[in-house]
Amino acid sequence: MSDVSDWWSTDIIDMAPGQIRLRGHPIEELIGAVSFPQMIWLMTRGGVPSEAEATLFEAALVAAVDHGPQAPSIAAARMAVTCGLSLNGAMASAVNMLDDVHGGAGEQAVELYHRIGSADAPLAEILEEWRAEHGQFIPGFGHRFHKPVDPRAPRLLGLVDAAAEDGTVSGRFAAIARGIEGALAGEKGKPVPVNIDGATAVIFAELGFPAPLARGLFCLSRSVGILSHAYEQQQQGGRNKGPTPPGYRWTYTGPNPIDD
Amino acid sequence: MSDVSDWWSTDIIDMAPGQIRLRGHPIEELIGAVSFPQMIWLMTRGGVPSEAEATLFEAALVAAVDHGPQAPSIAAARMAVTCGLSLNGAMASAVNMLDDVHGGAGEQAVELYHRIGSADAPLAEILEEWRAEHGQFIPGFGHRFHKPVDPRAPRLLGLVDAAAEDGTVSGRFAAIARGIEGALAGEKGKPVPVNIDGATAVIFAELGFPAPLARGLFCLSRSVGILSHAYEQQQQGGRNKGPTPPGYRWTYTGPNPIDD
Amino acid sequence: MSDVSDWWSTDIIDMAPGQIRLRGHPIEELIGAVSFPQMIWLMTRGGVPSEAEATLFEAALVAAVDHGPQAPSIAAARMAVTCGLSLNGAMASAVNMLDDVHGGAGEQAVELYHRIGSADAPLAEILEEWRAEHGQFIPGFGHRFHKPVDPRAPRLLGLVDAAAEDGTVSGRFAAIARGIEGALAGEKGKPVPVNIDGATAVIFAELGFPAPLARGLFCLSRSVGILSHAYEQQQQGGRNKGPTPPGYRWTYTGPNPIDD
Amino acid sequence: MSDVSDWWSTDIIDMAPGQIRLRGHPIEELIGAVSFPQMIWLMTRGGVPSEAEATLFEAALVAAVDHGPQAPSIAAARMAVTCGLSLNGAMASAVNMLDDVHGGAGEQAVELYHRIGSADAPLAEILEEWRAEHGQFIPGFGHRFHKPVDPRAPRLLGLVDAAAEDGTVSGRFAAIARGIEGALAGEKGKPVPVNIDGATAVIFAELGFPAPLARGLFCLSRSVGILSHAYEQQQQGGRNKGPTPPGYRWTYTGPNPIDD
Asked: Is the CB of B83 less than 8 angstroms away from the CB of D98?
């Protein structure tokens, strides 16, 4: 479709009646031939990964699908269904929530790893620089709930180690993440282990994904949990089931409170 | 987590500090062990599919990822990025568009197949009944752009046939879809072939997915294309790039038009 | 702009460089001359209401702006901000929630009033017919929280009465709503008074707004509260403040629960 | 409601059964007593403005309601309806688009005015500093379509002048905006007049609104046009009406284009 308008231009898809090509591949040659993770890779960045690369990539997609109904995205999905939204509307409401605080942590972690990987300065100096720019929180490390450790992270890092051993990836970003763990433990006097964002960021960085895709791929992965909870809520029925557990009331701090 | 509140209740996820179980499976036993399509299956409906089932399921997920920038969802994603939205916001804006017209066709097709499969009445009668309820359009058949045929559909049906031959699925919903094709061709005097919605609906029905998940799984699949286009647009830069190609103006039909 | 394309056509706006007309009125003649409620009326349905009509309309817009942080729309807005969304993203996430359960009640109430107003059948029969189609719940009546009465409803109905007295409106839809109140009280043996949706629906019906706009106008009105809460939350700061009050955990009902 | 939980806390609303207070005012004392713009003011920042203040505020709300179907927000709303979304879903999809590029310009303009108003440095220096931080584009000035001038801006500035004369506002932010106009005209050798974002920013700044509310108030105002177009599209019917005008095709720039 090499014509007419510079309105949108794309490297991704070309179509004519009866024909669809994705990154140059006829769709009918992809269906049944590439796995879904390979297709995600092909679409988002081009090229078809080897099976070993796709398997490591897949592990990151599998790991982040859900973190329970108190995660804002999942809560939003379930609320949306009780407000009458269809599954697409519930998924949209939920994915919108995966902004800087949730979706952004993985993106920032990839950026931080790259900065460390390309710098000559000592790690402590780079962390200090990062904090001057972004605040105290180092993205991808520590967890307010999973103490002592997020069970997903060591499993993912173990897969990266295995992939480094067989030459699928270099292992340098796993080393960088472990370096940060060490530095933070030294600072705090207790473990601040890599979390799910930090571990998936290692995988995305090892496989050469640019940082912004870490956010997008997290959204894709979490969409699985979002859909699952939205559908489960739809099956349960229930209208109007707000975010409010029984007996809950918020605190009013303004003028002229109601006496009760 | 068997306590406290009936606010939300779920069969999907259980958590404690350091522990996450999805449908009863510790997450660290799933990561690296199940494929992403198997995880999607486990999350949305429970159970882990066989590899043969997962492969057929995967084909449906691969097939629907993109249909070009003129598809409203993809267009919305690209517009959103040029308005300054982050990738999660662009994905949300786009998935919201996958309502009854787009996301709903697959869901309706599964419903129609089930109705036909469980009815004693002749096909023509059931189609008539469907049209009385839903209008003339039979969901999952025909395509305004892909003439004579959507290249994705025969490939998907071929995979269903192969899966029926090796006993992975029964093949009865493929037969139902072909029956509808025959009936519509007879009615119109020209082919009205099964399209992407109709073909993925055959797969979802063969594999036992309930109809509403056809919509949700389409949203998941299309999210891949949405993310890819949003990210490509983000790389291209460009602000404010509305939906308007050069020279385009809308038609004003109200009172007191501007003379020009 | 009377040319070119039938892509979009609109009675609402016409533009040329240096010129903007809304429903035929140059924008510079509207600014400073019509009130915001008059502009809302002009834009959504055409025509500029009298001041008396605009005042009654305005009362409905003022009444529904907020119903506290446990209302799903307000909760979604505040959650969104703690997830890092900008105000527009928070507002979008929140307005999406105003679907059939919240936004739809006013729309349905207008439809019900019109059905009653144009029917020859006795009220009890029409309510029965409505319930056969829509379920037991009569939209616009009763409140799970505001017992005995929603303080907004009698005030709004009082304004309708005053407007009927001075000839601004007919008062027939207020009479219809009171008829429904009477019928429901008779059925239940206790008051089931008109609520905010039912009372604003009376105003919209009296003023000649079509039913779907009742939903849209509610979204506009509630957007004020949504914005206010989103902005307040933004000022408070706080990251990640999910929907989960302290100590809250959901109920897991699936296989293999975590022992704790 | 002075109890229980620090989950959400708010100065905005307090409720008990049968009672609703907004910023301390019983809702039934506000309905019919304050105008919709006064209510927006009370909700977003507290306090009830004088009628003169409310009138100036209202002019800004009236001015920005619509900018035609090629504006991304309006286009998204109309697309959403043709995809089957309800009015709330269409409004949400559209408001989500009002991010940094559209909604953010007004917010940035207020920030810039405040910076200029509180600085000792000469204007040229502050503009240079702004551009070093934000890029060449000065928010609130110039228009790619409305040459020579956006008809809304001079009308709004005229109302500010009148309000300054009668003492409602100081007029200092109007003077700042005109100073910027002068500086930009000097730079470019042609007029770069204040646009709708810059003019409404003057009003919001004169009235003491903080910068982020400029974005939120623009979203409220534009929601009126969004609703109007969504409802008009719903009345027109039409399914699947993508963003694509007849004959439109995008440009494919990737490998292996389809020969045609």
From this structure: yes
Query: Could you tell me the CA-to-CA distances from C21 to C18, C27, D63, D72 in Å, in that order?
Result: 10, 5, 11, 19
CATH architecture for segment(s) C105-213: Orthogonal Bundle (1.10)
Going from the C-alpha of C122 to that of each of C127, C130, C140, C244, the distances in angstroms are 9, 13, 19, 48
Phi, psi for A180 (deg, rounded to 5): -65, -45
Q: Are C255 and B12 in contact (CB under 8 A)?
A: no
Residue A228: what pLDDT? 98
Length of chain B: 260
| CA–CA dist D248, D260 (Å, integer) | 15
- How far, rounded to the nearest angstrom, does the alpha carbon of residue C33 sit from its chain's CA centroid? 26
Closest CA to A231 of A80, A46, A24: A80
Q: For an interface test with B, give the residue of A67, A224, A229, A236 to mutate (most B CBs within 10 A).
A: A224
Mean pLDDT of D106-126: 96
Dihedral (CA of B225, B226, B228, B229) sign = positive
| List of chain D residues whose C-beta atoms are within 8 Å of the C-beta of residue C75 | 8
The average confidence (pLDDT) of chain C is 92
Tokens standing for residue A79? 């609320």
Tell me: pLDDT of A101 over 80.
yes
Q: How far apart are the first and last CA of chain C?
A: 69
Sign of CA dihedral C173, C176, C182, C184: negative
CB contact under 8 A, C95 and D78: no
- Strand ranges (E), chain D: 9-10, 13-16, 19-22, 25-26, 251-252
- Distances in Å between the alpha carbon of C59 and those of C126, C215, D1, D36? 29, 16, 26, 8
| Radius of gyration of chain C from its Cα atoms, rounded to whole angstroms | 22
Instruction: Name the residue with tokens 């510790």.
Output: B26
> What H or E segment, with its residue span, contains residue B251?
strand B251-252
Closest CA of chain C from B3, distance in Å: 6
**Alpha helices (H) in chain C, listed in sequence order:** 27-30, 36-45, 51-63, 72-82, 87-96, 103-118, 123-134, 152-165, 172-188, 196-206, 211-236
DSSP label at residue B58: H
Rounded to 5 degrees, φ, ψ at B141 are: -135, 140
Asked if omega into C148 is within 30° of 0 (cis), the reply is yes
Q: What angle do CA D48, D49, D50 make, to 5 degrees?
A: 125
What is the average pLDDT across A187-204? Answer: 96
Residues in chain D: 260
Distance CA D221, CA D237 (A): 25
Name the minimum distance, in Å, from the CA of A77 to any CA of chain C: 10
pLDDT band, very low/low/confident/very high, at B235 (cuts 50, 70, 90): very high
Burial per residue of C154-191, b for 16 or more beta-carbon CB atoms within 10 angstroms, e otherwise? ebbbbbbebbbeeebbebebbbbbeebbebbeeeeeee
Express each pLDDT in D66-110 by its tens digit. Answer: 999 889 999 999 999 999 999 999 999 999 999 998 888 999 999
pLDDT digits (tens, 9 = 90+) for B180-203: 999 999 999 999 999 999 999 999
What residues of chain A lie within 8 A of the CB of D23, using their CB? Answer: 254-255
Neighbours of chain B (3+ CB pairs under 8 A): A, C, D
The closest of B19, C250, B39, B26 to A150, measured between CA atoms, is B19
Q: Is D9 helix (H, G, I), strand (E, B) or coil?
A: strand
Amino acid in position D175: A
- Can you tell me the ipTM of this complex? 0.95
Give the pLDDT confidence score for residue A251 in this predicted structure: 84
**Side chain identity, residue A79:** M
String of DSSP letters for C140-184: TB--SSS-S--THHHHHHHHHHHHHHTTSS--HHHHHHHHHHHHH
User: CA-CA distance, B152 to A22, in Å (whole number)?
Assistant: 12
pLDDT at D4: 36
Nearest CA in chain B to A244: B7
